[in-house]
Amino acid sequence: MIKLIRGFRDILPGDVELWQDIEAKARVLLENFGFREIRLPIMESTDLFSRGIGTDTDIVEKEMYSFPDSKGRGQTLRPEATASVVRAYIEHGFAGSDPVQKFYTIGPMFRHERPQKGRYRQFYQINAEMYGVASPLADVQIMYMLHLFFTGLSVPDVVTHVNSLGCPECRPKFRDALTAFVSDKTDRLCSDCQRRAKTNPLRVIDCKVPGCKEAVEGAPSIQDHLCQDCREHFEAVIKGLDNLSVPYEINPRLVRGLDYYTRTTFEVQTSLLGAQNAVAGGGRYDGLVKILEGKDTPAIGFAIGFDRLAALLGAEEKDFTVPPPLFVAALGAEAQKIAFDWLCAFNAKGLRAEMDYEGKSLKSQMKQANRFRVGHVLILGETELQNNKAVLRNMDTKEQVEVALDGLVDQVIALINQG
Ligand code: AMP
Q: pLDDT for 287-341, tens place per residue?
């Protein structure tokens, strides 16, 4: 039997209803905040990600699904959406019409990581990206929106961590201080961090491996190295969050895995998902549009991990299937013919109804209706046919009413809608 590829998964009916609900709420909120949907391809030139995300990041170094096309050009299944949104922003000349643009996109990402609970090789994200606003108001608005989203869904046990990563002015000094600090501790670091200590020392300070955590205790803090502008920006963000009563924790260790971040970075964390504790993350990336050959444009965005969010919300309830309101049970060939016409009419008029297609006994049709957990069953047997009336049974109250066959479809819809 051919099975799923490791790290990939199916999202089945029964679970998918929760996903649809989350997605619908995300769309409403994002659009209320002025974000417009952008749909992007899942494959892009490899260069877009290596240049955009940074060659010294885990993603680009070892996690991308890259392969050459027939002419040998590198292409990659997108590991994240931000670089693609920036490409589209530049390619379609948005900056020319109005540099201030807000986009959102929802879809699959691909990273060749070691699969485990909450970590997949194909996973889904809800991304929001905002261009052209350097003001800390953008940071506040975007974090406020994220806060509303999580509270609106009543996501349990989430805390927003916030930090500043400085800018090309102040970060190199912090990086130097950090490199000096870790240089005599490399033997205590995990193999990944031994490599990172040279290429990307910022990543060492947020490594989750206990030995690394211990080794970097007392490491220099970026908060002590921010330049005047970055400090003022950060303070304005914090003040804005306070004004809107958005809860947060300042976490000077929050670094995140992508090179393009500048200034504000944030991550929504939970303790309910084991090692994979980040449910959403984002930040400013003021340099990225320029790196990808667009005009120098400030930008900020976030990605919500859809799989992890669904796991948090679905932890208790096992089945999110919405039962159909109606089952049509018919006995005898003639009744079944009529019932099928009704079924089609109910479906066409927007009422979800089910029936048995194979002429089973009334008892087994009622069992099937129970399995569907329907609210009502419409029964049409030989006696009902003779009387020109069908019976509508409320499965909760067990009450039954007779409905004339003439004009039955609209009558039944009205009765069901009445409750
Ligand atoms: P990132 O693009 O790395 O900033 O990740 C943003 C969010 O996507 C994270 O907070 C996670 O919730 C989610 N995420 C990242 N990688 C994975 C993965 N391999 N499997 C499931 N979710 C992921």
A: 999 999 999 999 999 999 999 999 999 988 888 999 999 999 999 999 999 999 9
Please state, in angstroms and rounded to a whole number, the distance separating the CA atoms of residues 108 and 42.
7
Residue nearest to atom 18 of ligand 1 (CA): 119
Give the residue, out of 57, 125, 277, with the most ligand 1 atoms within 8 A of its beta carbon, to mutate for a pocket test. Answer: 125
Tell me the residue type at 49. Answer: F
**In contact, 256 and 265? CB cutoff 8 Å:** yes
Give, in words, the CATH class of 16-170+226-314: alpha beta
- Sorted by where each begins, the domain ranges of the chain are 16-170+226-314, 326-417
- With a 6 Å cutoff on the Cβ, whether 280 touches ligand 1 is yes
Fold type of domain 326-417: Rossmann fold (3.40.50)
| Residue 283, ligand 1, Cβ within 6 A | no
Q: What is the pLDDT of residues 155-211, one digit of tens each?
A: 988 999 999 999 999 999 999 998 999 888 888 999 888 888 888 888 888 787 888
* Residue 325 Cβ < 6 Å to ligand 1: no
**78 alpha carbon to ligand 1 midpoint, in Å?**
13
Dihedral of the alpha carbons of 272, 275, 280, 285, in degrees to the nearest 10: 160
